[in-house]
Amino acid sequence: MIDNHILAPIFVQLFTAIIQLMFWRKTLTQRYLSVGGSLVGLMVAFRLFGRVKESGILTLNAANWDAPFGIVFVADLLSVTLVLLTSIACFAVSIFSSVGLSRQRMLYGYFPIFHFLIMGLHGAFLTGDIFNLYVYFEVIIISSFVLMTLGGRKAQLEGAVKYMAMNILASMFFLTGIGILYGITGSLNMADLSIRIQEVQNKALIGITSCFFIIGFGIKSAVFPLYYWLPSSYHTPPSAVAATFGGLLTKVGIYAMLRVFSLIFVPDEFTRTLLMVIAVLTILTGAFGALIKTNIRRLFSYLIVCHIGFMVGGIAMFSKIALMGAVFYLIHDIMVKTNMFLIAGLIRQLGGTMDMGKLGGLYRDYPKISLLIAIVLFSLVGIPPLSGFWPKIFLFQEAFAQHQYFYVAALIIGSFVTLYVIAKMWSEVFWKNPPTEEEIDNRFAPMPPYKKILMVLPIALLALVTLYIGLNAEAIVKVADTISTQLIDPSAYIDAVLGNKTD
Amino acid sequence: MELLLVLILGLLYAAGVYLILRRSMVKLLLGIILWGNGANILIFVLGKITKGSPPVIDGAYKVFQDVYADPIPQALILTAIVISFGLTSFAIVLLKRVYALVDSDDLDDLNTPEEEDI
Amino acid sequence: MKSAILQTATRYLLPILLLFSFFLLLRGHYYPGGGFVGGLVASIAFVLHSFANGTENTMKILRYKPLSLIPIGLAVSAVSVTFPLLLGFPPMTGLWFEEPIPVIGMIGSALFFDLGVYLVVIGVVLTILFTIALND
């Protein structure tokens, strides 16, 4: 079904950014515009989600060119779910950054760039053309470079060099892969590619091409041998930026893997084994890295890597239940990881540092905020009935059914290490008495009340969404079920894109 | 012609990889640029080169009269060039700032412990 | 770098290059050219001027900061992309006036998109160059 309005989330972000650029250096106006624009974007995303859930896959042929020739935008349930989650995260982060960011960074244009980044994310989720996906990836990484370096000090700029080098490298792999894919098939439309790739005789060539995509997306989503740029750069930017990066950017890599490996390169035995090995090693290295870190944000960075492995494992098993688990975990992870970095920012405001050894006594001083944070931490760990618990059931179930015992072991180790490090963090930061010899630099207490509310509100909002995902898991499972059905059998997607030719 | 281009693109990729593996930041940047140009030539070669017939329709006709070059690789390359232009200029500014702060061109020197900052 | 030859040449080259960039912008829809190339040629004209006369003088003849061109250009492009939506077409559909206009030729939404790109390219290139040049 053709719907000319599925690009609305992109345009809302684009126009928000442009209007903010016109108010260059007027940071107060930019803050209002940012929160307002994110709210409008959230409503548009809700409407789009409702429409797609009701009437199935929607498409749009840009510039009125018919499907395999022009650029096509496709809104299937996976896309719109991610657009909706991105919009929620964008709303929360934009509220948080309106009080949690130094004025100097806002003067350098933080808000417009942030909205360009969100626009790129929406575009990457909605496009149905593989080269267009590359273009949106570039929009994302260029914006993220600027956010990474904005008003930066030494450590931040050093992190940015590593981040930049690895991400440009990932783009080059992706571009090379696209070039070869176009040479083999002569098409760039993902639905069209899905049909044409089956007619290619030279299967080895396709296998090699798929490796380019694995490497490209692997760097972006930070999987095992390619992840080291993430822990060495994500702890440097301001917390609001780190929240966007940690919650959303690595997940774009996972989304791209889901899309490309379900539509174009349906995983064969070799790819599955490769992805499974990567997944297991990613979980283990991420978990062991998290064990030894004492800085909260470095700890969270390693937890991102660890939990990416869960999802890659789901893709590696490539069955309906495994994909359900992976998609559900993706939904849960975006909300929780965004919130974790916002919480790290709040803890920094409360205790003046992010080093666990120097923190303490937050539960005694701020019991309500601590309980709110506890909800998020429990969801991350996956205490039943909270959101992290449900996807793991599916992953375990399918791993046992396919006899992937290494993955089962890695899942268990990963989950226990998460539990251990979060419990350690809880007792260090919240229960332990604060170290007496050091002066605590509390920046939260002197803030005016409205700023305090604006700082806690986004965390509460995301925690509420997490609670909803956990307690109303049935609804999410239904969504994940539809998504995984569409991923396993892409004929609905292909029909929606190419079927328009005959009308 | 194709053989020449294939050799050149292989050379560009190889030189790019070699430079990226060096420790210097400037060489990293040069490597990325060479690799990007290699990728562009790769797309160009894979689009089946047709000599002397650009995909521009003569004003007198409505459709193409004979074999013409595939316009899509050109559009892709143009987009890729624009993107790499933006990336490269950003990278130059960034590396210049880092060089001014760290006072070293060596990637191994980029390990200042974290400064506390929100 | 002070060179009398370059300075004199630039005085004549700057308007010619700007005119050429505009020519490239206008012929871009059916022939080689377009907003990106036109924008690059225009910014190269200013770069040449800054080589000959120093960056401060170039900033003086520009009067406004090149940064302010970026939102204008983006707005022109974004409006030309979304405008077809109001008439019920998908975004980016080419809409054209029936009659050609003398000198400029056919006018359509693609021309406005290119114009936006032209402005953005000038803004971005000059901003980057001024940032690099003035940091020394």
TrEMBL record, chain A:
GO biological process, one term: ATP synthesis coupled electron transport
First and last residue of the signal peptide: none
NADH:quinone oxidoreductase/Mrp antiporter transmembrane domain segment(s): 129-418
Intracellular or extracellular location(s): Cell membrane; Membrane
Pfam short name (any one): Proton_antipo_M
Keywords, comma-separated and alphabetical: Cell membrane, Membrane, Transmembrane, Transmembrane helix
Any one of the GO CC terms: plasma membrane
Main location group: membrane
Protein known as: Na+/H+ antiporter subunit D
Organism, as annotated: Sphingobacterium corticibacterium
Lineage: Bacteria, Pseudomonadati, Bacteroidota, Sphingobacteriia, Sphingobacteriales
Automatic annotation (TrEMBL), chain B:
Main location: membrane
Transmembrane segments: 6-21, 28-46, 75-95
The UniProt record lists the keyword Cell membrane: yes
Gene3D superfamilies: 1.10.287.3510
GO cellular component, one term: plasma membrane
Keyword entries, A-Z: Cell membrane, Membrane, Transmembrane, Transmembrane helix
Subcellular location: Cell membrane
A Pfam match: Oxidored_q2
Membrane topology of the entry: Multi-pass membrane protein
Family named by the database record: Belongs to the CPA3 antiporters (TC 2.A.63) subunit C family.
Domain of life (superkingdom): Bacteria
The protein's name: Na+/H+ antiporter subunit C
Organism: Sphingobacterium corticibacterium
UniProtKB/TrEMBL annotation, chain C:
Positions of transmembrane segments: 12-30, 36-55, 67-89, 101-134
InterPro entries (UniProt xref): CPA3_antiporter_subunitB, MnhB
Its membrane topology: Multi-pass membrane protein
CC terms in the record's Gene Ontology section: plasma membrane
Keywords: Cell membrane, Membrane, Transmembrane, Transmembrane helix
Domain Na+/H+ antiporter MnhB subunit-related protein: 5-127
Cellular localisation: Cell membrane
Keyword Acyltransferase recorded: no
Domain of life of the source: Bacteria
Family membership noted in the UniProt record: Belongs to the CPA3 antiporters (TC 2.A.63) subunit B family.
Protein name per the record: Na+/H+ antiporter subunit B
Source species: Sphingobacterium corticibacterium
